[in-house]
Amino acid sequence: MLQLLQTLMPTIVAAVEYNVHFAKGLAYLGAGIAVFTGFGTAIGQGIAAGKAVEAVSRQPESSGKITTTMLIGQAVAETTGLYGLIIAFILISQ
Questions:
Q1: Nearest Cα to Cα of residue 92 among 19, 21, 28, 26
Q2: d(Cα 51, Cα 18) in Å, to the nearest integer?
Q3: What is the CATH number of the domain that holds 92?
Q4: Which of 24, 41, 46, 63 has the fewest beta carbons under 10 Å from its own?
Q5: HSE of 17 in the Cβ direction (CA atoms, 13 Å)?
Q6: What digits encode the pLDDT tens for the residues 3-46?
Q7: Is residue 10 part of a domain?
């Protein structure tokens, strides 16, 4: 039994080292995918800003309410991009 374990030990160590590098590579891949949340955030914020400009052009007297509502929506939408960035940093640090 001991002789079998001694012959398999280099194989086991190599497999563990390969798995560590494989897991690290997947963490980097996951971090890259997590950063893509910024694209969705940017598209959503652009659409919201465009609609707010259209609304102000139709009713200039309510521009204060429209701007306030748009800025609150922009802040809420930005959190998803920040969450993606935080997840990317967590994955890279492991």
A1: 28
A2: 51
A3: 1.20.20.10
A4: 46
A5: 6
A6: 665 666 666 555 556 678 888 889 999 999 988 888 888 999 99
A7: no
